Amino acid sequence: MAAKLFGIMMINVQSIELSIVNLRTLKQVERVRSDVSLGEDIYDQHTIDYDSVEEAAQALTGFIQIMNDYGVQDYHLWGSRSLSSANNADYIQDQLRVRTGLTIDWLSSSQETYLRSVAVAVHFPKFKQMITKPTYLLGINSGSVGISHYDQSNFVFSRSLRLGPVRISEVLEDLQSSVPNYVEVLDDYISSQITDFGRFLPGRRDQPSNVVMLGVAPFATLFTQQQTKAGGEELSSADFKALYDDVIDASDQYLMEKYQVDEADVRLIVPELLLINELLQLTHAQSIWLTNVTVLDGLIIQEAIKLGYKRYNFNNQIVTAAKNIADRYHVEPKHRELVTKFALHLFDQLKPLHQLGKRERLLLQVASIVHDVGSYIDPHQHYMHSDYILRATELTGLTDDEKEIIALVSRYHSAQTPSKDLKHFEHLQLEQRLLVSKLSAILRIADALDDGRKQKIDKISVSIRNPRVIITCFAHDDLFLENWVFAQKAKFFKEVFGLMPVIKLRGVR
């Protein structure tokens, strides 16, 4: 069978990359980087430099020619979260589309953190053995940090923080010439950001941990030399401290001569080193590893899974992260577990009606887990609170569009329906409106089956008998309340699918 070559391009703040890869084997046949800096002042001025658009367009046109030379017909262009947050990101996106024919798909922060985790899981040889003990993946790019935590061979937690070396350097640039103790001020600033961030880290934080660092480009040169000096693949916390002490007050000339740091990167070394030092203290790092896998490698794996070339399944990370959010807002666990169980069973049995796929099933699962987070604010109209909480919360591994879908499904699981709330619904494209309506209709029915929060129903079976959908409930108590709520929520289900759901009660001995 002929090799399936695919081209994936990624626009970052400081570079544009291309990978041409065989999706069957994940073997890269070409990897090209162009040092085009679209976001020279993005964290300070919040805009992308228009003068660099032509340079970026030329680089992308060159990438297209390379892909044509390899006979690559399928390719995709992604853009980093940092660039998408610029005030003029939409204009730049359109200008590049006009010049190259390529449309940028923007990644969310949670996607970037998730994709790094996926890349490490596939490409880092010691990963499975390492995560039997507390392990943190620290993905550091120009403007943010992504932390993923593993323990006892399971994914535990993921979160991102807008604090990268370029962002720090740009935001505090004016201070460098106006304060005598610039390094100390930098350290105080970073520490203040990390302290709040650290409160959300779960697990055995007092235990020594393994740390795998990704994307630390300027620091990588320093790490490699210290690694050689230490005589092993990883650094100990003592090795890192020795490196830190040698570098933190060093002159630019010293860094360039001893560590071969590029002159353009010297200004980033101190902010990055201070940031890494704070993160290593936060995670109680004992052993420190460095890998060169990136978000681009995660995108390659994601594409291979999507097109059926690989069968990796990392959905457990997305589900675990959703449960973490539900726990943070004290969602009642028994109710959410039963509603999730019923919602997924309904989804599977009603496939002839909704004709949705695996990704949509995952979105329903996440919505079922988090739909009641708004009760933390106020049980009255909690569905509206759920909507805005979820819009403002990172949902690991999901796009911004998917996050909006889950927020809307949570909004419509209770009293409101899309038909009666057009101002929050009509801006969506038709396909998204249908998806929100279908998932909401299913979740409303599942939620009604445990409206009393007493788990009266042990299991359900579903059969489609036009013009009805028969839901047989195996219950150990009466369902008077559930029947009443079900009858109200069933109306929207009929509006969406054209069939009326009805409950059939079966007793359980």
UniProtKB/TrEMBL annotation:
<comment type="similarity">
    <text>Belongs to the GppA/Ppx family.</text>
</comment>
<dbReference type="InterPro" id="IPR050273">
    <property type="entry name" value="GppA/Ppx_hydrolase"/>
</dbReference>
<dbReference type="Pfam" id="PF02541">
    <property type="entry name" value="Ppx-GppA"/>
</dbReference>
<dbReference type="Pfam" id="PF21447">
    <property type="entry name" value="Ppx-GppA_III"/>
</dbReference>
<feature type="domain" description="Ppx/GppA phosphatase C-terminal">
    <location>
        <begin position="321"/>
        <end position="465"/>
    </location>
</feature>
<dbReference type="InterPro" id="IPR003607">
    <property type="entry name" value="HD/PDEase_dom"/>
</dbReference>
<protein>
    <submittedName>
        <fullName>HD domain-containing protein</fullName>
    </submittedName>
</protein>
<dbReference type="InterPro" id="IPR048950">
    <property type="entry name" value="Ppx_GppA_C"/>
</dbReference>
<feature type="domain" description="Ppx/GppA phosphatase N-terminal">
    <location>
        <begin position="26"/>
        <end position="303"/>
    </location>
</feature>
<dbReference type="InterPro" id="IPR003695">
    <property type="entry name" value="Ppx_GppA_N"/>
</dbReference>
<dbReference type="InterPro" id="IPR043129">
    <property type="entry name" value="ATPase_NBD"/>
</dbReference>
